[in-house]
Amino acid sequence: MADHDDLRRLLTNPRETLDLELKEWIDPQKPEGKAKIAKGCLALRNNDGGRLVIGFTDAGQPATDNVPSNVREVFHNDVVQSIVSSYAADPFTVDVVFVELNGREYPVISVPSGVRTPVAAKADLKDPNDPTGRKFLVRDHVIYVRSVNSNNMVSSTDARKGDWARLTTLCFNNREADIGGFVRRHLAALDFKSLAALVPAFAGMLHRPSAGERAVEELNRGRGCFDAAARRRQMRIPNVGFRESVIIVDGEFPPQTTTVSFRDKLLRSAPSHTGWPPWVDLWGTTDEEWRPRVFENGWESLVQNMNPATAFLGPHLDFWRMEPRGVFYHIRALEDDLATSRGLQPLTVLDFLLQISRTAEVISTGLSFGQTLGCDTTKTSLLFGFRWTRLRGRALVSWVEPSRWFRTTGAAEQDEFVTSVVVPLETPPTGIAPHVGNFVQELFALFGGREVEQRVVEQIVSDTVQRRM
Question: How many C-beta neighbours within 10 Å does residue 341 have?
Fold first, then answer.
């Protein structure tokens, strides 16, 4: 898989979220093991996809008991798929990937998105240890979901009254994606200038000059916070390019404060499309410097290890910030400048697929943040700002997927690219491709006028949202 390294990073410090469930080692041949796989996958399907990781405790630590000697055979894709098919009333496929960490392989079961109707269990599974025969591990007709309790703890459970609103919204969004895909592709792909040209009478209403200015202001402010955090850490910022993003919630929501509850409810509900999300949560890591901390009325996290000799999962540099006022900032060193092990020279290339996938993940995360804050989806919009730096002299390539045919047209002359996009909060994750296409086409044009077909953009966005990247 293209982002297999991201899954390895994820397993270094996994934490249960709505789309990530952890289970200790189980036996898929026994009723208890079958039940955990069936309920977990059904709940993740009703969450619109996610991952079930085997071999970790709820606290995110590798489990040491009952480790099978033949992990790949015990959790073979056919074994897991058979269990899911036996208990899912509406069948769906799962994919099992084995991720190596510290000399041991762990099964990662990926459940796809795209749920249109709540998936219920279609068979009972009795508890063989119950002498009365009245206890069930899985119940026929029950709909299992991923749910967050009052203590911000996540679990797979049967749907309660508080879960139905989210579940029905997910299903409706996926149905809307099928019905309204054509309309969104053609209308949402028109930027403000294009619409203004079509309807001159409304040019003043459609043109919002303050949106770009607000995005740049928050990008600059976020970059200042990153520079300050690096100085406090006495960290030298390397000579690489960066990709920055900012999310601004433009709508009303209940007052928030920089508490653990604020951080947890946002991060536990946020999607993890690639295994190493922009706002990666390393609260449970043993390295205290990587843990999120409060600074100047916001949560911050600086995660870096640029030494190839000591960076177990490869060099990386991330910084993010979350503020109760509804502003979220992220900056990451370009993967293209950190992949020297693949023979890439820093500051020479930019992978087109990564730019589409990563920015789609930011937009999807922003939609989650806005909904988790309690905004009215019909009255709230999200302003996204993106910035790439150190572009001059790079060529646009496809090194992540070398098998993909990709024609290089020329090196970039422009050193920095900034863009912004406004996305209605009611937009489903499946409907963000036109927004991604709007600005990545401008970015790609810097490289000798390169064009990427919209259908390619849509496919990469779809693969990202459905966790196939």
Answer: 9
467 sits in the region (left: phi over 0; alpha: psi -120 to 50; else beta) called left
* Cross-strand pairs, 98: 107
b/e string for 2-26 if b means 16 or more Cβ within 10 A?
bbebbbbbbbbbbbbbbbbbbbbbb
Give the predicted TM-score (pTM) of the model.
Answer: 0.72
Cα–Cα distance measured from residue 145 to residue 163, given in angstroms and rounded to the nearest whole number: 8
Tokens at 448, concatenated: 């000798």
Q: Please report where in the chains the tokens 């990587």 appear, as a residue.
A: 290
Strands 299-305 and 293-294: antiparallel
Domains of the chain (ranges, CATH numbers): 4-167 (3.30.950.30), 209-465 (no CATH)
* Cβ-based neighbours of 411, under 8 Å, separated by 6 or more: 392, 393, 394, 395, 447, 448
Q: How do residues 279-310 score in pLDDT, each as one tens digit?
A: 998 887 777 788 899 999 999 999 987 666 65
Spatial distance between the Cα atoms of 277 and 289, rounded to a whole number of angstroms = 18
